[in-house]
């Protein structure tokens, strides 16, 4: 389908973008890569009267370690994430996710900030952000905001971003010794939304005891979901095959999938069980290396 008519505006700075949003009101939407918003517009699920293109704002595309954090600019594309030497060496979970995100043409334009700000539980990055306990930095009419990821997703396509706010940066605790992460999603075909997906990040001490654990689920609830009950089972313990099996079962019980063209509820719960166990094992393998 063809989107409804809209007015196009191009911002060259954060200040200009925020001012435009304030002037144009609630019918204005920001767009960076457009690969989350435009499909919804084509289906007439979204019909904004104004599009504010922020893709050319300078200074929001970077990947760097600074202080105690890995910092990623919101306009960093999926392709830049895919080819970052820093992420390849110390944060391989990002590579797992990017390789499963659409196709190269989409990854060349799609940005990590747009993927998260869209608030879609079917996108890959939200579950990953939950697993690594990210912090979201946004700029808006009221200044700079710092939002813990567990307070960011509010509902179906709803986030903590208020009108005029622009997500500018993602901050993630710097990779520690004996830490590792992994992500995988089941999809019907390359580039499809996930039938179900799981992101895991684990930190071990020198004796192999789990000091911190993050588990995020993709597309099995209305909002990106943290598997809190499963995390509590593992935290403070040596992770055994028995505990992994228990957490897989918890994941299948606590997720909230709906039957659709991608599978029945029972099928999706079974997939979540299997992927959770596999990603726990993969994250542990990377942590122990």
Topology:
Layout: E1 7-10, H1 14-24, E2 28-31, H2 37-42, E3 50-53, E4 63-66, E5 69-73, H3 78-82, H4 85-90, H5 92-99, H6 104-107, H7 112-117, H8 124-131, E6 135-140, E7 143-148, E8 153-155, E9 158-159, E10 166-173, E11 179-187, E12 194-204, E13 210-218, E14 225-226, H9 228-234, H10 241-254, H11 265-288
Parallel strand pairs: 1-3, 2-3
Antiparallel strand pairs: 4-5, 5-10, 6-7, 6-10, 8-9, 11-12, 12-13, 13-14
Task: Please name the defining characteristics of this protein.
single chain; 289 residues; alpha+beta; Uridine Diphospho-n-acetylenolpyruvylglucosamine Reductase, domain 2; Uridine Diphospho-n-acetylenolpyruvylglucosamine Reductase, domain 3; Enolase-like, domain 1; 3 domains; five-stranded antiparallel beta sheet; four-stranded antiparallel beta sheet; globular
Number of helices: 11
How many structural domains does the protein architecture include?
A: 3
CATH class category of the largest domain: Alpha Beta
Distance between the termini: 49 Å
* Biggest sheet descriptor: 5 strands, antiparallel
Radius of gyration: 19 Å
Mean pLDDT: 94
Task: Give me the secondary-structure category.
Answer: alpha+beta
**Total strands:** 14
- Helical amount among residues, as a percent range? 25-40%
CATH architecture of the largest domain: 2-Layer Sandwich
Q: How are the strands ordered across the major sheet?
A: 4-5-10-6-7
Which stretches of 5+ consecutive residues score pLDDT under 50? Answer: none
**Beta-strand proportion:** 25-35%
Shape: globular
Order of helices and strands: EHEHEEEHHHHHHEEEEEEEEEHHH
Find the CATH topology of the largest domain.
Uridine Diphospho-n-acetylenolpyruvylglucosamine Reductase, domain 3
